[in-house]
Each structure stands twice: as C-alpha cells, then as structure tokens.
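Structure in, sequence out. Go:
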C-alpha cells in the first residue's frame, strides 16, 4: 500500500488533488494555460509525474477542472451574496459587491489566464449552464423592472461587470467600485424602463 500523509486514504487523495490544482493554477497565472503540463504541475506540486496521472489523465483535464471549480466558487459567492436581496436595487448592489470581492480575491485573474483553453464539449455545456445561473439575479432585475430589450441590457450590464473587475484588480477599493457600478447600472436601467429602480 502506498505511503499516505493523512489519517485516511480519502483525505490523502483530497490533499494531493488540491496540491495538483493549486500548482496548475499558479503556473497558469504566471504564464498562461500553455505552461500547464503534467510535468510542470508535478514539479511544482513536489510529486512524481505518475502521481499526477493518478488524478488527471492529461493537462487538458487539469485545466478543465480548474475552469469548472473556479466557476463553481464564483456561482456560490453570487448565491450567497444575493440570498437575502429582495428588491432590484438590493439585487444589483449585492451582485456587484460579490463581483468586486471576487476580483479582489484574484478569482478572475485565473479566468483571464485560461481564456482560449480548448475544453471538452461536456465542460463547455456545463459552463454555459453555469453562466445562465450566474446571470439569473440580473435577469430577475430586468424582468422585475420590465426592461425593454433585456438581452441588450444584460450585455451592457456585463460590460459594467467587466469594468468593475478591472478596476478592482488595478487596486481600487472593492466596496467603492461595487457601489459605483451598481448605482450606474440602476440609473441606466431606470432610463430604459421609466420605472423607479427600487
């Protein structure tokens, strides 16, 4: 039986898997997805390459897992932030605060580093479904405010999201950027509906 460093085999495997993913993430952030090879990941994690193969069959599988797990964390953060929001105003403010905090934690840098990664069809399908779920709070806002041409409005809101992320990553205060982006968005939506935003 192989030597394990944790009380149980399951805990050992979980720790090894986490180390592999952490190493791959560090490599991707430093040099992009192309630098993520199983040999490089093994060396960074301090493991033999066959040990990495025991968890992931290829570098593409490692990258796909990074994308999906990062997306799951982002979705969970959004759900937690918007859980108690009731009005359109509260939902938009909660959404942008989650965006800004996520950006401050560095979560979106990984997404940028993995842009262009070729993912298996089933992973792309999961991501598309996930994108729809993460957009759900904004879609609810658009519906509640009776926004005309909601798809166009959602695309504009995404532009504000991206700008908020960029400013936080550049060192701006997350709470202030979230408030500014939310206020800007709500003001724009009010003009598109003629209805009060809250």
């Amino acid at each position: 039986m192989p030597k394990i460093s944790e009380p149980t085999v399951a805990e050992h495997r979980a720790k090894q898997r986490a180390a592999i993913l952490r190493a791959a993430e560090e490599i991707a952030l430093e040099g992009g997805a192309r630098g993520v090879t199983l040999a490089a990941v093994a060396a960074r994690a301090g493991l033999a390459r066959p040990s990495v193969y025991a968890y992931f069959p290829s570098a593409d599988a490692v990258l796909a897992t990074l994308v999906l797990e990062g997306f799951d964390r982002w979705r969970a953060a959004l759900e937690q932030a918007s859980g108690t929001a009731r009005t359109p105003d509260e939902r938009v403010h909660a959404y942008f605060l989650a965006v800004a905090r996520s950006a401050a934690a560095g979560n979106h840098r990984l997404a940028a580093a993995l842009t262009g990664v070729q993912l298996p069809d089933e992973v792309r399908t999961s991501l598309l479904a996930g994108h729809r779920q993460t957009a759900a709070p904004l879609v609810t806002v658009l519906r509640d405010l009776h926004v005309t041409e909601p798809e166009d409005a959602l695309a504009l809101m995404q532009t504000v999201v991206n700008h908020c992320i960029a400013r936080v990553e550049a060192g701006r205060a997350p709470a202030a950027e979230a408030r500014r982006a939310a206020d800007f968005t709500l003001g724009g939506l009010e003009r598109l509906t003629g209805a009060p935003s809250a």
